[in-house]
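The following block was generated as part of the benchmark described in Methods. Ligand: zinc ion.
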Amino acid sequence: MNLRIGNGIDFHKIEKLDEEGLMVLGGTTIRSYYKIIAHSDGDIVLHALSDAILGACGEADIGYFFPDTDQKNKNLDSKVILNKALEIMKSKNYYILNIDITLVAEVPKINLYRDQIKESLAQLCKISKDQVSVKATTTEKMGFIGQKEGIACFASVLLGKN
Ligand code: ZN
């Protein structure tokens, strides 16, 4: 069996809002009192996932394809990044077997949104929901994540070959 594994990791700064706002996570929008600071729309889940897919394909990282020094990538919809990774994957005859996401964050709490994020990822990747896991953990208030200065996301993906 021809299998390929890929890992992706992403970090972003977060900032407290005065009022509840919207945060894009996994291609869907959730409500949060924090916002992600980023050059693009800051979808940390799609960034980590795209890197995992590219990694499994033996390709470079998303920064190589979408440099943050390029003005046209400002406020970029991260679905464009994921679609590029999926396009490369398909061109190499790979397909997704499963996706495993772990968000490391004190905020936002994703329990209320887990299913919504899973659904969104399944739709974007054209796979079924049971091929997607979305998990979260904290750092027990330690470090920059614990102090709510930033969040991290880890993604693993397993690909099969047609
Ligand atoms: Zn990112």
